[in-house]
User: Fold Adenylate kinase from Candidatus Brevifilum fermentans.
Amino acid sequence: MKTPLFIVLLGPPGAGKGTQAKRLAQALGLVHISTGDLFREHLKNETVLGQLAQSFMSKGELVPDDVTIKMVEERLAQPDCEQGAVLDGFPRTPAQAESLQDLLSQFGVGVKVAPLIAVPDDVLVERLSGRWMSTSGRVYHALYNPPAVKWIDDVDGSELYQRDDDKPETVRHRIEVYREQTAPLIDYFLKKGLLVEIDGTQAIDCVTENLMKAVKEA
Ligand code: AP5
Assistant:
């Protein structure tokens, strides 16, 4: 059996973590775990956890650590994670990073590499205000990654929508929360020798290429 491979994608809101995590997971045969997507799935299914998460997400605040860690623990316990995962949006606090280390010890491994997708704030606001989502999880951008027909998903023809937390004032608060609560993880992974900075302002394919290189060299 192959050694499980766990990759942590770091970066501010709108850096392209979701876009790239899907591509890496597909290329490497791993599962893509996005805590943001898991919370939105709970919200869609009207669970208690979904309602709780929404009260934080709508304000651009982080969902409390204990709730988030438990949800990730349950996800990692599923059989499709045996080969590893691309983690997108987790960990986001030092407490989550410590818990991840404990959770991965059950697989007999640690995080293999933690690429940081670096993008300046003005580009983040532009990316999130032009982001169009499909209910199936595909992500488009009005200018940089447009669907063939405006507001229509290329694959299933459904109508695209904008996320509630992509309003400019909420985006600005999410970036502040990232700087205060998540940016300390850059130092955490740097000290462990796992951090690789990737220029996230390049074209989507180019970022994927650089991420794949970072994973292969890890
Ligand atoms: P989450 O869903 O994780 O949001 P986020 O981290 O803020 O990241 P985004 O999804 O907004 O951006 P992204 O980096 O994935 O960029 P994308 O690829 O879409 O979290 C939402 C909320 O859930 C949080 O605020 C919090 O409340 C809660 N939450 C989640 N995880 C949590 C945790 N661990 N702890 C506590 N709370 C948690 O790209 C953005 C746009 O840019 C797209 O339109 C895309 O097409 C475009 N684009 C991407 N790459 C490029 C490129 N290279 N060039 C041009 N355009 C590009």
Notes: The pocket of BIS(adenosine)-5'-pentaphosphate is lined by residues 11, 13-19, 34-36, 39, 56-57, 60-63, 68, 89-90, 92, 96, 127-128, 131, 139-141, 144-145, 165, 174, 200, 203-204, 207 (CB under 6 Å). The beta strands are 5-9, 31-34, 84-88, 114-118, 131-133, 139-141, 195-199. The first helix runs from residue 17 to 28. The chain has a mean pLDDT of 96.
